[in-house]
Design brief:
Elements lengths: L5 E5 L3 E2 L21 E5 H6 L17 E3 L11 E4 L2 E8 L4 H6 L5 H4 L6 E5 L3 E4 L4 E3 L2
Length: 138
């Protein structure tokens, strides 16, 4: 992942330039709106410090947005906004064996289980910036 200070979001497609918006993602042949944008809590990444042999930096976690100070799991099924972008939070984004293998971090999948963030559908075109906050819409 490449750190950025803003993301251009395309309704029903994904993030401009992202592999899923381009149709080249691993699961692009099985389209599903929850793959358009992912969010993970910074607190979940920080908690990995309690595991001496496991680490995962924000730019390594394969999530699009890193949040701070909000419990994402409670937002499943709800509409949220980040800046001027509205998102439908579809489901949890459980970590996979691919991430664990790519980072050569045995135990990472278990350490992040139920803390791997959420998968969202982008409902309108807009821009997310690092200054934006996450708000509940409905």
């Amino acid at each position: 992942m490449i750190p950025a200070d803003h993301l251009s979001c395309l309704a029903g497609e994904g993030i401009e330039g992202d592999r899923y918006a381009l149709g080249t993602g691993t699961f692009s042949k099985k389209p599903e709106p929850g793959r358009q944008l992912t969010i993970i809590e910074n607190e979940a990444l920080e908690a990995l410090k309690h595991f001496p042999d496991i680490s995962c930096l924000a730019e390594q976690c394969r999530r699009n947005v890193i949040s701070q100070g909000i419990r994402l799991n409670s937002l499943v099924g709800k509409i949220i906004s980040i800046g001027n972008v509205e998102l439908k939070v579809h489901r949890l984004c459980q970590p996979c064996g691919y991430l664990e293998g790519k980072l050569k971090q045995a135990g990472l999948k278990d350490a992040l289980w139920d803390k791997g963030g959420v998968r969202c559908e982008i409902l309108n075109d807009g821009t997310i910036t690092v200054e934006n906050t996450i708000s509940l819409v409905d």
